[in-house]
Amino acid sequence: MIDLLVAHGADEDVTVAAVDRLADLFAATYVGLWEWAARRDPILARLGLSPDQSGALVALVAGSRRYRHDGKRDSLLIAARTASNRDGSVALSPAQLRRVDVYTGKIRMTRRREHAMRPLSEPVAVGRAALAR
């Protein structure tokens, strides 16, 4: 899984340390709070991850909250494990590709409820000027 993230532009050392930290958080936190805890974790922040990047990494490792609660499996970790048991190639779903792009910083999430995706090159208005538009 880490090799897949690195192939998409992630820093290998940061990713290894972040996944290791997530393992600690997963063991100490209720499953419904994994993303919440990761978004606020000071160690992940010190590694240089934004809250959105931390949340995307949780979804990549453990799957999305919606699917975890429905019993479905959409994590990149499970996809990589399944592929290694078969032929070794992993096909990323569109949702997994979006999460990889958020984690690697290629796109960022807005603070809006629907989490619209914006490329980093596109400016995001904030403050009173944004409210006036």
Q: Any descriptors?
A:
133 residues; 59% helix; two-stranded antiparallel ribbon; disordered C terminus
Give an overview of the whole structure:
The chain is mainly alpha-helical and about 130 residues long. The chain has one domain (about 1-130). The chain has nine helices and two strands. It has helices at about 1-5, 10-30, 35-40, 40-45, 50-60, 65-70, 75-85, 95-105, 130, and strands at about 105-110, 115-120. The protein has a two-stranded antiparallel sheet. The longest helix has 17 residues, at about 10-30. The protein starts with a helix and ends with a helix. The model is unreliable at about 110-133 (pLDDT under 50).
Number of domains: 1
Radius of gyration: 15 Å
Beta-strand residue percentage: under 5%
Q: Order of SSEs, N→C?
A: HHHHHHHHEEH
Quote the distance from N terminus to C terminus: 42 Å
Number of helices: 9
| Strand order in the sheet with the most strands | 1-2
Task: Give the strand tally.
Answer: 2
Outline the low-pLDDT stretches.
112-133
Helix content: 55-70%
Oligomeric grouping of the chains:
single chain
Q: Provide mean pLDDT, rounded.
A: 77
Describe the largest sheet.
2 strands, antiparallel
Structural class: mainly alpha
Which overall shape is indicated by the principal axes computed on the Cα atoms? globular
